[in-house]
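Justification of resources, computational component.

The compute hours requested in this renewal are based largely on the per-chain cost of generating structure records like the one below. Each record pairs the submitted sequence with a full structure-token output. That output is archived, and it is also reused by downstream analysis tasks.
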Amino acid sequence: MPAMRIRVPASTSNLGHGFDCLGMALTLANEITVLEGPAPAELRQEGLERLCGAVREQCQQVFGGPALPEVHLQITGTVPIARGLGSSATIILALAAAYQRLAGRDEDRQELVRIGYGIEGHPDNVAAAALGGFTIAAHLASGLRCLHFPVPAELGVVVVIPDYEVVTAAARRVLPESLSREEAVRGWQRASLISAALASGQPAALVDCFQQAWHEHYRAELNPELEGLRAAAGAAGAWGTFLSGSGSTILSLCPHSRAAAIAETLSAHLRAKGTSAQVQACQADNQGLCWLPD
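The structure output for this chain reads:
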């Protein structure tokens, strides 16, 4: 089996009010090499091996046919772990794409999204990373349905990646079992506006859409920098700021021409508070998962 190299972009999910359904791929990315056989003993990581086993099992269930081989991964790139940027989605999708090819199946990104959804339990990160651009995903009676739309180049992105982790499982445990009517209606209205603005290529219509996302209220203690960064980014010209997934990354959308200046403003804000974080301007990635030359 020859080595297989796959690039998978980072992804931001929820986009404020689109909990577990909206996502967007980013130009941060991991390059993942899939190699035959188990990892050498000195390179084994229990969590990674468990995830690889889950992907192989899920692919075997979907594909049927002969048993899929054990493989191991080499990962390089810029997608940090446990920061709300879809690092696990990059691994799941790269491995599923490799197994899809090994099984002799046609390349099918929607199938990869379904496999990833079966493992992660939410489709937002895997849909964005696999398909690229802005994505909307929902589980219907007929199964998972994902739509994706190109993001215009005028949309800039600034990511603030704190030094601390927020584990998704812990961030979900703080959420309530039910919402008030006011919270639900506000979420539906603003998720609809966010979707329409991005799907129609009108990013300037995102202004004021991201405040008061219900899940961010409950996750405030896990992500103490959010409101200060939101105010600073807004004053510097950002269209909106929100938690990327469950955090700890905080992401601002803005005019591309303002991204570098907003990144510097947020860096200065964090320095004044004595908070350590990586601040970076980037863009949306409209390509999604892609194969690299051997």
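The chain has a mean pLDDT of 95. The first strand starts at residue 4 and ends at 13.
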